[in-house]
Design brief:
single chain; mainly beta; nine-stranded mixed sheet; seven-stranded antiparallel sheet; 2% helix
Length: 632
């Protein structure tokens, strides 16, 4: 039986119908793949794959908006009898009383026993303060009589929004801010069979991470009195980051974030990259989207205005920097005080920047223990190019559409304690930062990030504190693994794009969970740019590395790699190159091979920090000629 996403070709044995372009090659090829995933054609992971992590992980949608994969921060989204509380103890919940929108009998019947106004609530902790959040729920008239109005309320300690909805007619009722609640909105959408999905949106306080959501059956639009005669079915309650409700994600005892399917911009259109897998990182730059805040404490010969244009995430939160008319340099700076480095560390500073205000050039600067004077690298944001580069910097520039670029530099921290300063400089041309300013000229800025690491990773929003993104973990275990894997002989075809070259990043592994004694492992080489490695261990004995070199391969480049194994026989080819072989291999112990690790090491960690677009597996050792054809 084969397992796959959009591309499955059957099970063990039998003649293949040559869907991979081999029929005209004159090659002797038998046997169907038993596993095949084309992640660049998917939007959700197949159920055979287990995914965890990714909290606060961003990605680009097919329309170029920087956002989040579907997630749900509430617990027990389909069971109102647990986790959910009623302050006045005046509610009757009949679990699994109705047919839910997904066809299961999991809708809960909610009826209030008196006319108090407490509602049913759940408190939870959000991953980042100050973001826009949306609560959503599925509602339908319940089992006892015909009831009209419900209220969905979302707020932090003091501020938020309440929204009313008519579950009989599908009409949207009143929307009221709570306290200083801002960016409020509400929607109601019919999904059939009497069910509606209702939503309420609010902007959270910049410091409060403790939030609550309330569900109430009420007697009238704008009312707070509970309806104590009739009931309403509630199901699928969710809270997610963003101004709209994302695809519903069911939860039980923990919040759930789903895998990210990413896209890139080629100057004309957005193209799917596949599954994005990254290590954990923390953005230690504060107020990443508010350059008017006190965190950006040094301002020289720029004026700044908040929320002046649409940012890459679709919200009007990008700030404007305009020049003063002084004949001098101009900059805005954030300083991270008293960072302690026990050893030399790499950091990457990045921002989103947009032109259109009369300036083409700018510079990013850093001051560290390794370089006590400012190191400055220049960028042309009209043509998307890098200009004069500081010796201490490794720069990058990425076009993310609508005139926006993500630019950044990687630099060495040095050793000891320092106040780390990172600067944004205006420039009139390449390497020319001192000039007479023009009051109408400047830049749009947004999304600053400072992270420990030798390359940039996906953006993490901050307000008054640093915010972490958890690592992505993607595996196949149990029969989801054993049904297709053959320890005696096999071939993997992988299409991937790691974030870095010359750094040990893991692409794919087969092993025992959390063990480094028996495995097949594909990784990028540490210290040798352009090198991929295929490493095998058996009984804790290394069977050696197959090194696949390509001097032209750079960070972020996509490639195809095929690896094949049998007893005393391993082989690998990348991008159609001649195979590299090893004829002295003892295969891993069969009983130990129980897990496929996707985009990470066989024993956990070591994420690829990039994209996996395809994995295909044949339970046979394909010939070297076929390995070359498949990777061409």
């Amino acid at each position: 039986m084969g397992i796959g996403g959009s591309d499955v070709s059957g099970g063990y044995g039998g003649e293949i119908s040559f869907p991979f372009g081999l029929s005209d090659q004159g090659l002797d090829f038998k046997g169907n793949p038993t596993l095949s995933f084309k992640f660049n054609q998917l939007t959700t992971l197949p159920s055979a794959i287990t995914y965890t992590g990714g909290v606060n992980g961003a990605k680009y949608d097919s329309d170029g908006v920087l956002g989040y994969a579907p997630h749900n921060m509430l617990l027990q989204s389909e069971d109102l009898t647990t986790t959910w509380t009623e302050p006045n103890s005046d509610v009757t919940i009949t679990a699994n009383a109705g047919i839910a929108p997904d066809g299961s009998t999991t809708a809960d019947d909610l009826k209030h026993d008196d006319s108090s106004s407490a509602g049913l609530l759940q408190g939870y902790t959000v991953p980042v303060a100050g973001a826009i959040y949306t609560a959503s729920a599925y509602v339908k008239q319940g089992s006892t009589g015909s009831h009209d109005w419900v209220r969905l309320q979302l707020h932090d300690a003091d501020d938020g929004a309440s929204a009313w909805f008519n579950v009989a007619t599908g009409a949207k009722g009143a929307l009221a801010a709570i306290g200083a609640g801002s960016n409020t909105n509400s929607t109601i959408t019919s999904i059939g069979s009497g069910w509606y999905r209702i939503t309420v949106t609010m902007q959270a306080d910049a410091t409060d991470v403790t939030h609550k959501v309330f569900l109430t059956n009420v007697t009238a639009d704008s009312g707070t009195t509970e309806e104590d005669t009739n009931s309403v079915w509630w199901w699928g309650i969710q809270v997610n980051i963003g101004a709209t409700a994302l695809t519903y994600v069911p939860t039980t005892t923990a919040a759930v974030w789903t895998a990210r399917f990413d896209h890139s911009y080629d100057g004309t259109s957005w193209n799917p990259l596949g599954l994005l897998i990254e290590e954990a990182r923390t953005n230690i730059c504060l107020q990443s989207e508010d350059w008017t805040s006190g965190s950006w404490g040094t301002l020289a010969r720029f004026t700044r205005t908040a929320d002046q244009t649409t940012a890459p995430d679709g919200n009007t939160t990008a700030d404007k920097l305009l020049e003063t008319t002084d004949d001098n340099t101009r900059l805005i700076r954030q300083t991270i005080d008293n960072l302690v480095f026990s050893a030399t560390s790499d950091y990457t500073w990045s921002i989103y920047v947009k032109g259109g205000l009369g300036r083409d050039w700018l510079a990013l600067g850093t001051t560290t223990l390794a370089s006590d004077s400012s190191q400055n690298t220049h960028f042309d944001i009209t043509n998307g190019t890098i200009g004069t580069t500081a010796a201490a910097h490794t720069p990058f520039i990425q076009d993310v559409g609508n005139g926006w670029f993500r630019i950044g530099v990687t630099f060495d921290s040095g050793t000891g304690t320092t106040d780390l300063r990172f600067n944004f400089w205006g420039a009139i041309s390449d390497n020319d930062r001192s000039y007479i300013g023009v009051a109408t000229k400047g830049y749009y800025v947004w999304g600053a990030q400072l992270e420990a690491g030798a390359f940039p990773t996906s953006y993490v929003r901050t307000t008054t504190a640093a915010v972490a993104r958890t690592a992505d973990n993607t595996t196949m275990t149990g029969t989801n693994f054993s049904d297709w894997y053959n320890n005696v002989a096999g071939t993997f075809l992988i299409e991937a794009a790691p974030a870095a070259s010359g750094v040990a990043l893991h692409v794919l592994g087969v092993s025992k969970p959390s063990s480094s004694a028996d495995f097949h492992n594909v990784l990028t080489s540490s210290g040798t740019a352009g090198r991929l490695q295929y490493h095998t261990k058996s009984g804790n004995g290394s069977q050696g590395y197959i090194n696949i070199d390509d001097a032209d391969w750079e960070a972020g480049d996509s490639w195809k790699l095929a690896i094949a194994y049998a007893t005393d026989d391993r082989s690998a080819s990348r991008n159609g190159a001649a195979t590299v072989t090893d004829n002295g291999t003892t295969l891993p112990v069969a009983a130990e091979m129980t897990i496929l690790s996707i985009g990470q090491s066989p024993w956990g960690g070591g994420q690829i920090n990039g994209h996996i677009s395809r994995i295909t597996y044949w339970p046979t050792r394909l010939s070297d000629e076929i390995l070359q054809v498949e990777t061409s």
